[in-house]
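USER: Study each token:
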Amino acid sequence: MSSARIHRTAVVGADVQLAQDVEVGPFCYLDGAIHIGAGTTLLSHVTILGHAEIGRGNVFHPNSVIGGAPQDVSYTGGVRRVCIGHRNGFREGVTVHRGSEHGDATIIGSDNLFMVNSHVAHDCQIGDRVVLVNGALLGGWVQIGNAAIISGNCVIHQFCRVGRLAMMRGLSRTSRDIPPFCIADGLHLLRGVNVVGLRRAGFSAETVRAIRRAFVILFGRARNLNLALDELIATGPLVPEVHEMLDFIASSKRGVVQGPRSLPTANRASG
């Protein structure tokens, strides 16, 4: 801890371990078996509690609270953890809770951005390069895939999953799983494919067309999803990203969100 910079008004418990170049700003409160990696900054009024493993280069803004007890009425105070990777940003008022009575750890990857007043509940698992926009709320046990975007004031029910590079539009909510590469809106409803996100991520035009064709078959009209899956598989060899969608759907325990009542012409096109 000797090489860390700790403001004289901060409170740092005896079990806290700070790597070199960690900066703890004014009025921060750290209490528990906490380890913080090199180059992480706590600007001011940051609270970190319990068992927390925090990697390198993270930035915590004022009034963020990490590792608080889960909002779980069965929790009796047992040792549960928060595990955070590297280079994440936690803006003002962000809350991340430790694992629950029946869980173990809340896990956050690297290079994520948690905007103002977003909330990560107990036992969530968040990948890399995820964005939670202002006011986004995750229930317990939610899983978010890499590079997904959860827009402002979205709500995700406990145990739901959001696939890689999926996007939820602002004010939407879901109690079902959202497949990879899709855009969700309203109440567990799909609108289309996240074409802009795929292109920004470097996906080829051919791969984007294949995903859009798969979306039309799977969600283009109201019918039994198993029949749609059979039809898609029967079309012949599929790109890995479409197999990723199929595997995600097949492994869903809560069911997946529904397709739109009607598809825009652009989404009907085969490429």
Remarks:
- The longest strand covers residues 189-193.
- The first helix runs from residue 195 to 200.
- The radius of gyration is 21 Å.
- The chain is about 15% helix and 25% strand.
